[in-house]
Amino acid sequence: MVKVYGIPNCDTVKKARKWLDAQGVDYEFIDFKKSPPTEALLKTWLKHWPWDELINKRGTTWRKLSDDIKDAMNPSLAISTMMEQPSIIKRPVLIDGKQHLLGFKEADYQAFFS
After folding, report:
1. Is 27 among the catalytic positions?
2. Contact predicate 42/82, CB 8 Å
3. Span 27-45, pLDDT tens digits
């Protein structure tokens, strides 16, 4: 079963879910706000992406962090920050057990499901 992690009101997540629905893909949506990612899950994701790809540096959550925290950011601090403020994670995160995909680009999704 494909799992899609994100926030329901995020425009990128909406586009991804709309694409998945149009393709008839059966998936489970996990809302970061209701089910924040665990440390174990984030450590797994960090095996696939470096912390600076997993964190959305263009979003308001990142911009609101103090410069001290941004300057000190490392994998360990990234995990605790993502657990405390899951909206800082780039979204959506798509996982099917073997493959992992971050963000939404239609061409990437087509390749993922081909």
Report:
1. no
2. yes
3. 999 999 899 999 999 999 9
Distance (Å, rounded) from C-alpha 110 to C-alpha 114? Answer: 6
Give CA torsion, residues 4, 10, 12, 16, to 10 deg. Answer: 40
- Which of the following is catalytic: 4, 5, 10, 78? 10
Is the pTM of the predicted complex or chain greater than 0.90?
yes
Residue 37 corresponds to which tokens in the numbers above?
């990612």
Amino acid letter, 57: K
Distance separating alpha carbons of residues 6 and 45, to the nearest angstrom: 14
C-alpha distance from residue 5 to each of 14, 51, 71, 77, 79 (Å): 12, 16, 27, 21, 16
DSSP states of the chain as a string? -EEEEE-TT-HHHHHHHHHHHHHT--EEEEETTTSPPPHHHHHHHTTTS-HHHHB-TTSHHHHHS-HHHHHH--HHHHHHHHHH-GGGB-S-EEE-SS-EEES--HHHHHHHT-
